[in-house]
Structure formats: C-alpha cells, structure tokens
Specification:
This protein has 379 residues and is α+β, with helices and mostly antiparallel strands. The chain contains 8 helices and 14 strands. Helix content is 23%, strand content 26%. Strands 9-10-14-13 form a 4-stranded mixed beta sheet. About 24% of the residues have low confidence.
C-alpha cells in the first residue's frame, strides 16, 4: 500500500498531528492575521491564506480530519467519504471542495461575527425588525477579544454571538472586506482560474441608547430581531424571531459597534444581512463624559464662594463625596480621583467638579452695597 501523506495540513498550520481544537484556533488566528491579502501585500499572500484556511477547515472538522488522517488529501478528493456538508458526488465517493468564499467564511467566524456573512457598510431600508427585549445589570466576566487589525472592531471566536468591548468608537475593521482579493485559492489540483470576489452582505445598523450609569457599570442588553428568509425555489418568505445579546464591559464608550454577521434578512438570493448595533449615550441631567473622566457642575452661593465652604459632590451611580474649599471662582475645577469611568486595563478616570457661582436673587440695599465696598478690594 502506498504511503499516505497526512502531515501537510498540520505543517501548514504549524501544529502537531495531535493538536487540540484550541491549538488549531490559535494557529489559524496567528497565520490569518499574518497572511490575509488585505493586510499582507506580498505576491504569495493570497495562496498562503487560502492554504491556511483550507487546512483549518479540514482539521477543525472531526469527520474531515478523520478521513484526512487515514487517507490524506486523496481521501478528501474521492478516496473516502468526508461526511462534511460541502461535498459533491465524485468518482470514488464524496469529493471535498473549498474556494475563496469558504476562506472568507472562516475568517469572518474569527474576526467578523458569526459565520455566513461578510462585513460591508451599506445598511439601510428593508432590514430586519428590532425590538428591545430586556435589560440586565453586570456583564459576564468573559469578554470578547479585540480586533487585531485595528483599534476597534469585533473579534469573535468561531460562531458565537458577537460583542465588541473596544475602547474606541469607530469600527474600521470593515475596510478589510472592501475589494477583490485576486484569484480564488484552495484548488487541490491544477491552476485555479481567477474568480470574482464573493458578494458582500448588506449591513443594517441600529442605535442602542444606553445610560451613562450603565456605560460605567457595564450592561447586558437583549435585542429581539425579526428576520425574513426567502425560499430560493418558491420565493415564499418566512419570518423568524431571534434574540441577540449585546454586552458592554464597564467603561465602554458610546459609538462602540457590535456586529452579528448573517443575523439579518436573506432575500432575493443575496447574502444574509449583517446586523450592527451602535451604542448611543443617553443625555444625563447631572453628568457629562469626557473620555475616561466624568464632569459635573455644582451650584455654590456667592457668599460660600467668597468665604469658603464644604460642598457635597454627587457621584455617578449614587452617593456623594465632600469637598472643602477656601475660595471658589467660576474657573475653579477640583478633581476627585478614581470616580470616573473604569479603564480597560484597570483603574478609573476622575470626577471633574466645576462650580456655578450663584448671585443673590434680590438686588442689594444701599447699606449692603456700601458694606461690600468696604470689605472687598476693587482690584
């Protein structure tokens, strides 16, 4: 019996034949970031990216991996059944196929949301229906990892509901999917023809109003989404309902985006829409956010501003802190350390206290005016 070469895919990912699922994911993340054609402009980047994606696709599927370990690539190409969903009838059984769209699908499972959709910026009419379902308190301890290609954006581990915990308010990761990537790789034999880039799904964007208190403490918000699915054969449209969970870490900023790929409508033979939630800060009557700091203004009577006083400064979320001051002017700003918004890597911003000096509501009498002139210098 001829020898079977069943180490190639393991070598492509740089893992041992006994590699665990976690080992495979770690290897794929590292290599995909290095060789993605929209990040790496070298001539061999596309070919390497396709090879990495194909190797992960096979080894991460228990059935395909079993066939590959026993028969090598020949087994996948017709020598044995693969058991996977992406197969077609072949001379010796089922034939495993893999193309550029499959590589994109895997990439988005890791870096762009749930599998089955790409990132694009074209949200608008005709999107799925949204309804706020329920609102919770503290978020789960486990947080989503950051997008490795930008200062913000989504990082998703294979197929879970997506959530972003970035400090930044812009999601520039979508630009990775803005154009063609050249020839579609992944062919097992012969030279692959140049193919058009896969059709990009529409992104439907909705705002999620969140209070400043919840941005400070963290939150969990569940959004009920109604999506329409059109049967490709009959054209009939069915409506389903799903709940998407948006979690914000303590200190998350307004403008942060949470993308759920493939969770929207699927109509007119187009790819399933991506749903993107954007946090919107509700106006607060007492506080304003300034980066990681919180700003508030305390009213002080003129006599206290001149003579000094102790004021109780409210804190965001409840409670107060006393501040003793000898003199207060309209330009006075006091800092209460650590009472601002939580920071991603520990610690917190500050509470900045400004003062609104209140003048008497009634005019002074002539005697009062003379008394003020006697005690206050004109300079």
């Amino acid at each position: 019996m001829p020898s079977v070469n069943n180490r190639k895919f393991y070598d492509v990912l740089g893992v041992a034949p006994g590699a665990s699922e976690a080992d495979l994911k770690k290897a794929y993340r590292k290599l995909a970031m290095k060789w993605h054609p929209d990040r790496n402009k070298s001539p061999e980047a596309n070919e390497k990216f396709q090879a990495i994606s194909r190797a992960y696709d096979v080894l991460s599927d228990p059935e395909k991996r079993k066939v590959y370990d026993m028969y090598g690539e020949e087994g996948l190409n017709g020598g044995a059944p693969t058991g996977g969903p992406r197969t077609s009838a072949g001379p010796g059984g089922a034939t495993y196929t893999f193309d550029a769209a499959d590589a994109d699908r895997i990439f988005r499972q890791f870096f762009g949301g749930m599998g089955g959709g790409g990132m694009g910026m074209g949200g608008g009419m005709g999107g799925p229906g949204f309804q706020s379902f329920s609102f919770g308190g503290q978020p789960r301890a486990k947080q989503a990892r950051r997008n490795p290609f930008g200062s913000s954006g989504m990082f998703f581990g294979g197929g879970n509901s997506g959530m972003d915990t970035s400090d930044d308010s812009e999601d520039d990761f979508a630009s990775l999917f803005g154009g063609a990537r050249g020839p579609g790789g992944g062919c097992s034999r012969g030279q692959c023809p140049r193919t058009a880039p896969p059709q990009q799904p529409e992104v439907v964007q909705r705002k999620v109003p969140v209070s400043l208190e919840d941005l400070k403490t963290g939150f969990t918000k569940r959004m009920r989404v109604q999506r329409r699915i059109q049967d490709s054969q009959t054209g009939a449209i069915t409506t389903t309902s799903n709940i998407l969970t948006v979690e914000g870490r303590p200190g998350v900023k307004a403008g942060t985006k949470y993308t759920f790929a493939g969770a929207g409508d699927e109509l007119n033979a187009r790819p399933r829409q991506d749903i993107q939630f954007v946090l919107e800060e509700k106006p607060h009557p007492t506080f304003k956010r300034d980066g990681d700091d919180v700003v508030t203004t305390v009213k002080v009577p003129l006599v206290d501003a001149l003579c000094g006083c102790t004021v109780q400064v409210p804190k965001l979320g409840g409670g107060s802190v006393p501040l003793t001051l000898d003199r207060i002017t309209p330009q006075t700003v006091k800092i209460v350390a650590g009472e601002g918004m939580p920071k991603r890597h520990g610690g917190a911003g500050n509470l900045k206290v400004r003062f609104d000096v209140q003048f008497p509501a009634q005019p002074l009498t002539p005697d009062q005016k003379q008394g003020v002139r006697n005690f206050l210098p004109r300079a």
